[in-house]
Hints:
The protein has three domains: 1-65, no CATH class; 78-162, Arc Repressor Mutant, subunit A (Orthogonal Bundle); 169-281, Aminopeptidase, CATH 3.40.630. The chain is α+β, with helices and mostly antiparallel strands. The chain is built from eleven helices and ten strands. Strands 6-7-8-9-10 form a five-stranded mixed sheet, covered by helices on one side. Strands 3-5-4 form a three-stranded antiparallel sheet.
Amino acid sequence: ILDTLRERGPLQSADFEDRAVVPWEPGRWWSSQNVNMMLEILWEQGQILVSNRDGTRRFWDIPAHVLPELTTTEQISEEEMVRRAAVIAIRALGVATEKQIKYHFTRGRYPGLGKVLKDLVKEGVLVEAEVVEDRERSAYSAPAGVWYLHAGDLPLLERLHADDWGQRTVLLSPFDNLMCDRARTAWMFNYDFRIEIYVPAAKRKYGYYVLSALGGDRFIARLDPRMDRKTGVLTLNAIHAEPGVEVNSQTGLALAGAVQELGEFLGATHIALNGSVPDGWRKALAF
């Protein structure tokens, strides 16, 4: 596969001949397609990347073809790998405990992380932070452990304290990095999210593929959308306002803007409401 991609990439899975000597044993959640399984393994190892997509079809290629400016042959030690990954994870998370860092970026691959974090603090790259628990805002218990913050983000923290930041409303997929550590999200935002894809339709509370609407620094709604690529219609089957959110024209217009961005991303020609919508948002969401 790698030799073929070096010569002829990008290619989709159907372009490869199945030369497996020992076939992949199929399981409950995956098929026995040997080429697809090997592509997934190589992708997880970072040996190949998704070059582009055509609908749901992925085209694969080697990193040197997809991201030549970021491809490197530099050899680093395991400790240096953990060090670099930890810094990237912390800057993405903002503030995090050791356990939360392990769940982000190179998930589950942080051997010796505790020592690395202590070294980064000694060097002044990271600082230990105090995270104050707000019982009035969150019903969930605070995560245990030391919190870490990147020293380069201290000026940003001062801006946040001064309320000097631009709020916006965005829609997050169930697999967004902010959603993947659900215990962290529940405590920080008092927002309990569960994927209902595998829940029988009659037992779903919010919908099949629910998007979370983050407005500023709190979640304001959950949306159950469905995109029909044949007709170009993005249908909103239901919109659920989060408890305590002001359902008015201001939050409605912010939510409508986020929905329109989703429609543009999906190439929708029309957005339709086909289900329950809070009365205070119905006018703003009348596309």
